User: Fold these one by one.
Assistant:
Number 1:
Amino acid sequence: MRDSTLKKVWIYFLLTVTSFLVFFPVLYAFMISFMSGSEILQGRFFPEAFNFDNYAKVFDRLPLFKYLLNSFVVSLTVMVGQLAVCSLAAYAFVFIPFKGRDLVFFLFISTMMIPWEATMIPNFFTIQKLDWLNTYQGMSLPFFALAFGTFLLRQHFKTIPKELQEASQIAGLSRFAFFWKVILPVSKTSLVTLGAYGFLTTWNMYLWPLLITTNSSVRTVQIGLKQLQSQEISTDWGVVMAGVIVVIIPTLLLLFIGQKQLQKGLSQGALK
Amino acid sequence: MTTVRAPGVWKRSANLRIGFLYLLPSIILFAVFLFYPMIRTIYLSFFLTDQNGNAAVSVGFENYSYLLTSPAFLNSMKATGLFVLYTVPVGIILALFFALLANEKLKGIGFFRTMYSSTMGISVAASSVIWLFLFHPSVGVFNRILLVLDFPQIQWLLDPEWALVSIAISTIWMNTGFSFLILLGGLQNIDEHLYESSRIDGAGYFYRLRRITIPMLSPTLFFIITISLINAFQTFGQIDILTKGGPSQSTNLIVYSIYREAFINYQFGTASAQAVILFIIILVVTLLQFKLVERKVHYQ
C-alpha cells in the first residue's frame, strides 16, 4: 500500500515539474506582455501590475485586427474546403466501388511523399499567373485537397454499416442524399477532428503567406509577428509578447477544448 | 474499354463515373498544386531561368554538379543532417516520456495532458519569437541562469557553434505537443488485459515497458518517427525568424536555402535542383518507413 502511494507522489512530482517546464515559455511570454521595458531589464517573472498598455500599443503599431480577420477568413476557408473535398473523396473510396479505385487510392498515398516545399516555386508562379497574389483564394485553395484528411474520414466511414446504404437505397435516397443526410451526420466527430486540425495548421502556416502576400490586404497574423519582431526587437519586448499572446490565444483555446478529440482522431488517422 | 454493345454498359459504368465525380475536386487540386509543380520543378532543375521562372538555357545536370561541389550547399546539407540528428531522437524520447507519465490514471491528469500538448497550438512564428527572447544575450532567461550559476555566457543564436543547437532546442519544444498527442493516443489503444496478466506474473514497470508497451506502440512510434523526420527536413519558420540562416551559414537548412536561392537570388534553376534533392530525401525516408513497417512492426 505504502509502495503505491510513494509511486503516486513520484509521478505527480514528475508530472508537475516537466509540464511546468513545457509550459514555461508561454507562461513567461504572458508575464512579459504586461511588463514595461525596465521591468524586463530587471529580470522579473511577475509584472508589477497587469496593465494592458502593451496590448493597446501592439494594436496601434500593426493592423493587427486586419491580420486577425485575415487569419480567420483563410483558416475557416481552408477548413470548410478541406472538409468538403476530403469527405467527398473518402465517400467514394468507401461507398462507390469502381474499377481503378485502388489506383486512385495509390495516387492519394503518393501525394504524401511530395514535400510541399519542393513544389513551392512553380506554385508561386501559378498563383502569380492567375493574378491571385494577395487574395484569399490564393492563400487557401492550394490546401483544400489533403490525403491525410481523406484517410482520416475514410477510416471513420468504413465503420458505418453497409446495411445503412442498402436501406437508404430502398428508401429511395439518391447517392448524394445518402452522403449528405446520413453519412455526414453520423461522422460528426471525425469531421470536427479534421476541421480543428485544418484550422490549426492553416492558422499557423508561415512560408506560403510569406511568399504570396506583399501588402497587408490579406496578410495573416504569423507574418504580422515577423514584422513586429523585426520592427521592435531592440526596444519593446513587452509589445512583441503582447502580439504573441494575441496570436496564440485562438489556437490555444481550440486545442484546450478539442485536445481529447484531436488526440483520438489523429492517432486513428495515423494508423490504418 | 469494351466494344461489346451489351445493353447497360453505360449503366454498369455508372459507379465509375459517379466515383470519379466525387474524387474530381481532389484529383484536380492535386494535379494543379502538387503533381504539375513537382514535374515542373524537376524540369526547371535542368535549366537556367529568367526572372519570371521560365526556362531559358538548358544546362543538363550542371545545376546538380554545381550544387554537389558547392561548399555552401554541402554545408547546408550537413547542417540539415545534424539538425535532424539533434531534434528527432531527443524529441521523440521526450514526447514518449511525457506520454507515459500522462497515461497514468490519476486525478487531474487531464490538466497535465493539456499542458504537454499545448505547444501544438502555438505557431512556429509565435514560438520563434518567444525563443528569440529566451535566447537573448542579456535579458534572456538562459543567460540569466548561467550568470546565477557563475557559468560563462553563451551567445546562443550569434555563435556559429551554438546557433544550430539553439534552433534544435526550440524546435524540439515546438514539436513536443504533436508527438505527445499521437503517442498518448497510441498508448491508450493498447489493450488493458495485456497489462493485467503481466501484473499477476509480478512483472516490474520497466519489464512491462520493454516487453508490452514499446512493442505494442511500435506502429505509432514508426509513424511519429517518420513524421518527425519529414518535419525536420522541412524546417523553415524558426530559421527565418531566429537566425536567417546565419551566423556564417551554420543554420542554413535546406528549405531555407531553397527559399533564399529562389526568392531572394532569383536562381530558380539551382533552387529547383535543391528542391528535387529534398524530394528524393523525403521519398527515401517514406519508402524506408513502408518497408520497415511491413517487416518489423508488431500489429495485434
Number 2:
Amino acid sequence: MHVAVISVDSVEINRGHSQKMGFAFPLLSDADAAVIRRYDLLHRGAGPKNADIARPAEFYVDASGTVRWANLTENIAVRARPEQALHAIDAAKGGRRD
Amino acid sequence: MKRKWNWPLWVGFVVAVGGLFSYEFFAEFPMTRDFPWANLLLFGIGAALLLVGLFRAFGRPQVYRGKVFGSIFATISLFLFAFFAYEIFYVLRQVPLSAQAPRVGAKAPEFSLPDQNGKSVALGDLLSPNGAVLIFYRGHW
C-alpha cells in the first residue's frame, strides 16, 4: 500500500521538508490547487497571506481507484490518527493486512 | 505596617499566560490537541489563584497588596482566555463543507503531480497492488 501526501507547497519546500524529516513517501506539490479543487478540498484564504490551501482530509483508495475510506475533519486540530486509518483500511480490505 | 506579597495573583497570572502559550506544545499530542484539556486546566488553575488573590486584596487590603495590579492581571488573563476560546472553539472549526469531495464508493479523481524530486506521480502509479492512502494537508509553514 502506498501513502502520498498532497498540499499547495512547492516542490522545493517539499524537498527540504522531506530531506529534513527523512520521509520515504511522495510529497506531492499541487501549487495551483487544481487537484485540491477537483477533490473539493479547497480552504479559501486559510493559508499564509490569505493563500488558498487544502483543508485536512484523508482517503483510502483501493486498487481499482474506488474510495473505501474518507475522513473529512470538522475541526482543523482533529486529524485521523494512524491507528484509526489502519483500522479503517483493514476493514475496507476485509481484514487483510498486506 | 508593610503589606504582604499577594503571591496567588502573580502565580495565577503566570499560569494563565502559560495556558495560552503552551498550546503549541500540547498540540503536538493528539490527546491534548483533539480537545485542549491541558490548556483549559491551566486556565482554570490560573483563574482560581487569581480569584484567591483578588479576594485577599479586596477583602483584607490592610494585609495584602494587589488591588490595582491584581485587577489588571485578572483582566489580561480574561482577554487571553477569550482569545484562546475564540481560536480553538470557533476559528479551528471554520472548515469548508467539501460537499463534493469523493465519498466512500466513488471513484477517486485522477491526478498527476510532481513529488519532492520533481518526478511526476499519478494516482494510477500509487494504486497497485494494494491501493493508496491520500493525505491532503494544509502545508508546511
Number 3:
Amino acid sequence: MRNPALVFVVCVVMALFLGWATGSFFTETSVSKAIASIPGSPIVLEAKYDQENHAIVYSVFNPGGMPETIIQQAFVFKPGRETKEKGYVVSNIPVHITLPPGETSEVIMKLKTGTEKLHLGDVVLATFTYIHPLSTDLYTVVHSFEMGATEKKEKKASSQPGSSPAQKSEKSNKGGHK
Amino acid sequence: MKLEKAIWWILVSLFAVGSILFFFHLWLLSAWAIAHPEYAAFIIGLLGFWLFANRLIFGYAGLTTFASSLLKGQEPDKKDLLLRARQKITKLEEWTVASLLALWQAVLEPYKYAYYFAFFLVFVCTMLFELGFWGDEIASWVAKGLMFGAAIPTLLVFGLDLLASHYVSEALSRESL
C-alpha cells in the first residue's frame, strides 16, 4: 500500500461492509425474535389415505414461529355411493402431537377399526383441536378429505360455513394470556 | 498520551462497573443482558477488544502523526516521541527521528500479532457456532455479536497500521538519502 488514499478507501469499504453486516445481524435477531413470538394457524397441505393401516395421513404446516400442540382429533365419516358403510362420528380422540415452528409435520388419524376401507367418494371431515403457549384457548382446524378427489381440497372451517364449528372458536376463555 | 490513558481508564471503569452490576444483579443490567444477549455480547466485544487494541490504536495513530510531521519538514520532539513509545534508550542525541519511529513500530509488532490472534480465535469460534458444531441459535447469536463488536477496533488497528507503516517507511527512506 503506497498511497494513503488507497488505504483510506480500502478501510472505508471494509467499514461499510462491517456496518452493513452488523446492522443486518441486529435486524435479523430482532425480526426472528418477533416472528418467534407469533403463533400461526396450522395449514393442512396434503391428505393421503393409507390403505394398509386404514388411516389418513395429513401433512400439516405450522407457519408461525411458535410450537403448537394438537391435543384432540375428531372426525365425521360421510359415505359415498360405492360403500356399504354407514356414516359415523368419532370424536374427542386425545393425542399429543407437537408441530414445530415453520415446519411441515405428519399427523396420522386412524379411522375406526373394523370399518370398511375407504371407497371413491367417501368424505372424512377431520377436526383438529390445537393449543399454543400464549393462551389457554382451544383452536380448531377442519379439513375435509374426499377419497379419490383429483384435487386435494384443503379447506379450513372458515371457508365452509355451517358445516362445522367456526375456526378458532373459543371454547374456553379462562385465563387469557399467561 | 493523555487521551490514550483517559480512554483506557474510562473503558476499564466501564468494564468493572458493568461486571459488578452484572454479577450482583443490580440495576436491571443482568435482566437486560439476559433478554438481549447478542447486544450484551456486542458491547462486551467492543469494550474488551478496544481495551487490548487501545495501545495499538494510539500507537499507530501517534506513529502516523510523528512521521507525517517529519515528512512535512518539522522536527518532532524526540523526548516526547520516546515517552509515547514507552521506551528507554541511551545517547538520545545520536538517534534520528526516523530510527526512533522504526523502534516504536518494532515495539508494537508483537502486540499487533497477539491482538490479531485473539480476534482470529473469536472469528473461528463464531464460525463453528454458526455452522452448528456447538450450542444452539442463541449461542451463535452471542458469538456473532461478540465478533462484530471485536471487529470494530480490529478494523481501526488494521487501517492505522497500514497508514503508519506507509508513513514510517517514507520517513526512513527520506532520511537515508
Number 4:
Amino acid sequence: MRSIRYREAVREAIAEEMERDDSVVLLGEEVGHYQGAYKVTEGLLERFGERRIVDTPIAEAGFAGIGIGAALVGLRPIVEFMTWNFSFVAFDQIVQNAAKIFQMSGGTVKVPIVFRGPNGAARQVAAQHSHAVEPFYASVPGLLVVAPSIPRDAKGLLKSAIRDDNPVIFLEGETLYAIRGEVPDPSADELIPLGVARVAREGSDVTVVAWGRPYHTAMEAAERLAADGIACEVIDPRTIRPLDEETIVRSVRKTHRCVVVHEHWPYGGPGAEIVDRIQREAFDDLDAPVLRVSSLDVPMPYAAHLEERVLPSVERVVEAVRRVCYR
Amino acid sequence: MATSESEPRIDGAAARPGEASAYSVEQREALVPLYRTMLLIRRFEEEAARAYAQGKIGGFLHLYIGQEAVAVGAEAALRRDDYVFQTYRDHGTALARGTSARACMAELYGKDTGCSRGLGGSMHFFDASRHFFGGYGIVGGHVALAAGAAFKAKYRGEDRVSVCFLGEGAINIGGFHEAASLAGLWKLPLVLVVENNSYAMGTPFSRSSPVEDITRKAAGYGMAGDRFEGHDVLLVRDRIAQAVARARAGEGPTLVEVLTYRFRGHSMSDPGKYRTREEVEERKRFDPVPLARARLLGWGIDESRLRALEQSVEDEVADAVRFAETSAPAREDVMRACVLAERASDAGGRA
C-alpha cells in the first residue's frame, strides 16, 4: 500500500467527494488562493474553481451559518476552520442551529455538513490557539464528533462524514498533518464508518484508549512498556460521538485495567465519559481504578518547556500504566 | 418611537376609506385574501393567548398581533418556492406561508400533529414542504442560515430568493453583521426584512441604536436599502416585491426596514411598563387588520362578503383549537428519533 501524509489523506477525501457529488462545496478562510493555511486544500481551487472552493472573509459565525443554511436546502458543505480555536465565535451556529434543526423541525429538515480543521496544541501557540475542543462539542446531542489519528482513518472517516446526513465535527491536528501512513488507492473508495473503534495494538495487560495526537504518545509508551514486559492494548476510538463503547469494554474485560489518554482538560469531557462507561459496564472486571492522562488543568503556557509539561507525555502514560498494573 | 419631521411617520392616509385609489379592480380584489390571512393570524394569536392563560400552552409565547401586514405583505411578494426564515415570533409567517392553523395550534399545544411534532413549540415552527425553514430563538442567529439558503440558490443557478425576517433588536448582534457582510460580498439573492416593532423586549429602539434609520447600514454591506411603514399590507407587498425582484435578477441583497408595532407584550410575561397605554392606543389607530377592512369597504366590496369571510376565519380558528385539544400528545419515540437523521454509515457506537 502507498504511504501518504495525513494532510494529503484529508485533501484526497475532499477532492474525491467533490468529484462524485456536485453538492459538496468547501468554505473557509484561505482555502483557495492561499492554498490552505496548512496546505490541506492545496490545488483544490485550480481543480474545482471558485464556485466550489470558496474563500471567506474572517467571519466564522457568518460562513458557518451560511454553510448550515445551504445544508438545509440540499448542499453538503464542508466548512473549514483555520483551527478549531476559531470555532468558538461560531459556537452558536454549531450548537444552536446545526445540532438542533433536525429536532426542532420534527425530524423533517436534515443538516448534512462537516466542520473540520486542526484541533489541539500546535507547539508554542499559547493559550488562545491550543484548545482540544472535543469536550465542548461531544456533549451536544445532534452532533457527531470524529478525531482520526492516522492518515488512513482521516481519509476514510472524512469521506463517510461528508456523506452523512448529520452535522459532523471533524478534528484533525496541526501536529498530525505531516504524519505518514498507508492509505489505499483512490480507486478503493474506502469508507470507514463513524462509530467504530480501531484496535491499534493488541495486548493482554492493560487497555490504553487514546485519539488524536495523544494516540501517538500512547503508541510510543506502549512500545517502551513492551520492553519491560507490559503488553498494552491500544484502542483508538476514532469517533468520539457516537462512541464504540463495545470495543473498549471488551478490551477492558480482557485486560482488567485501563488508562485513557487525551489532550483535553481533565474536568469532564470524553475522557471522563469513557471512564464512566467502563465502570458501569465492566465494574466486576476491573483490577484497578481507571486512570486518565490529560493536559494539566491550566490555560496553555507559551514557554516550550512548560507546554511540554502540560501536554500528555510518554513518561506520564508509562507512569499511569505502571500504576494500574501495580508494577 | 421618536420621529422627526423628516422621517417617515405612521399615518393612516393611505388606507382611509373612500380614498381615490390608483388600484385597478383586480388589484383591489387581491386585497381580499390578504385581509383574510391577516385576520386569521390575528384571531389565531388571540386564541393562542387565551389558551396560554388557561395553561394549555407553556413556555414562551410571542404574539404577532399588530405586525400582520408585514408577514402577509411579504408573502404576497414571494414565490411559493422562495425560502423563508423567521425569528421566534413566527406564527404569522407560518400561517402566511400556508401552514394550516391546525398544525400551528397543535404545535403550541405540544401535540404530535403540530408542525414540528410538538418538539419545537411556539418559537420553532417549521414547514419544509412550504420552504419555511424555521423560527429561531437566538437573536441574529438565523440570519446566516437565510443567507446560506440564498447561497445554495445562487450556487445552483436557481432564481429563488431567500427572505429573512428579524427584529430591530437583532441589528446590533454579530450574527446579523456577519451574515449581512457575506451576503453583500457575494451578492446573494437575500432580502433582510427588519420588522422594527419599536421595542426589543422592553428597550425602545431609540435607546438601542445610534441611528434611527436602520437602512443606513445597507451601504456598508454593499446592499440596497428600503424603509417604509408596515400597516398597509399592499404597500408592504409592493415594496418588498422590489427587493425580491432585485434579488431574483442577481442584483444582490436588500436591507428592508418595515416600521411596525406590536400591540401585545414581548411575550406573555411582559408587564409592559416600558410604554404607556396611550402610546399603544395611539398606535392601534393604524392597526393593519381593520385598516384593510375599511379600505375594502371604501372600495365598495360588499360587507356581507367580508362577514362570510370573517366567519370562515372564526370557524378555521375554532377548528384549529379543537384539533389541537383532541390531538395525541407529542411522542417520546419521536423525540428519541429526532436527534440524528438516519445514517447510511450507521455501523455502531452509542451516542
